[in-house]
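hey so i finaly got around to running the thing on YcfL family protein from Candidatus Spyradosoma merdigallinarum. pasting the sequence first so u can double check i didnt mess up the copy paste, my clipboard has been acting weird all day
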Amino acid sequence: MPKKILKKTSAVLGAFAVCALAACAPSVNTVENADAGANKSLMQDKRVITDWGTEDFADIIEIRAGTTADGQNLRVQIEIENSDNDDVGRLSYRVEWFDAQGLKIEIPSAWIPLAVQPRKRETITLVAPVPAARDFRVSFKRSE
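ok and heres what it spat out for the 3d tokens, dont ask me to read them lol
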């Protein structure tokens, strides 16, 4: 009788362990259109890295640009990936806007926090606050 109980207990514990491990798995399956109908307008970027803390986990995948639906304001999307396998990437960003002559548009810009899960991507969407904005600069720093 004790052997039967031990076998049943072992089987139940084994099944529980498999279920527990499966529940902890962080993977997510993603499907997207391989023949996308949207025409992306990708931008070349110039990077100046002053905070190596964000370089450890925050990879800029691409920068896309366009305009708002009314065609008045610049609209930018920056896709960021956390390349770390374990830790949530915590960073902050802020944007500065420039006019057609390259002059900074004096609009206050606060640091905006962003958390990116391990091995996940986030898209930051920026919309120019005024139609005169023709260019931008985004700064990133590590957050605690």
